[in-house]
Input
Amino acid sequence: MAQDLDRRALLSLAATAAAAPALAAGDPSPDSTQTVPLWPGEPPGARAPPPRETIVDRSKTSGFQDRYVTGVGRPLLTVFRPPKPNGAAALICPGGGYIRVVIDKESFEVARRLAAAGVTCFVLRYRLPAEGWDHAADVPLQDAQRAIRLIRAGADGFGVDPARVCAIGFSAGGHVAASLATGFARGAYAPADAVDRVSARPDLFALFYPVIDMARPFAHEGSREALLGKAPTAAVEGAYSPHRHVTRETPPSFLVHALDDPAVPVENSLNYLAALRAAKVAAEAHLFEEGGHGFGIRLAQGKPAAAWPDLLLRWSARHGWLGARS
Output
């Protein structure tokens, strides 16, 4: 935990957490003025030249603010501080099929909703495996592990409880979060500094229409190819299918999926739920008749799936995330 860090590392983390640097270019948000780089230097597995970051705005065709980023050479956290923090922290892993990272509908919009409930949110801009990294399939997990460790190590500066950190993932970001939930103790990278002595285990996690299974017939083909290549072996598929690695140490879990999802079959959530139950891990699942895929908050409006933020908050409150256990 953070108390295990040496004094110099703690002072550095406190300064990072207290600072409020401007957001990256093209990344304006009226309610977040702070970004935190994940790594003190080059990320693990970096090659030259690094990917060139590009932000694409789809707002003219979608009808609402809708951006995504590619070329993530410098992964980071965008911090949303609530007006009335309750000490809970959420790492938000947006989707994008492992070929992009969604900025708005599965990240900033979610962060604003949770911040309104007192949660300090950290939106993860993680590296994409197909953009030229060594050990490419491990790159998203490396960033997720590092993110949890940074949140915990800088807990005092961020104003959060290091024992109340939840990881939340959407679609391919659900695969990032699920890989973290089952692989938090895995040595995915060589330690960069004292922060990497901190636990990367989330206290809770929540998955929304998650990519889980890397084997056919339930794999999401685009995410599978971007993460593992065109023809992964059965052993590789199994190694990167989180439901095959659930143990009693996997954190309590909340799952949401729509039965009419045309992109990621609901069996991804069902098989994960079955693994959680077999390992006797506390879990709650909501399967909605309507919602499709990628609904986030905005696109769920008017559908049964729109209820998920309140359901998540009630569930997490029962597990002590929002404060004292009821």
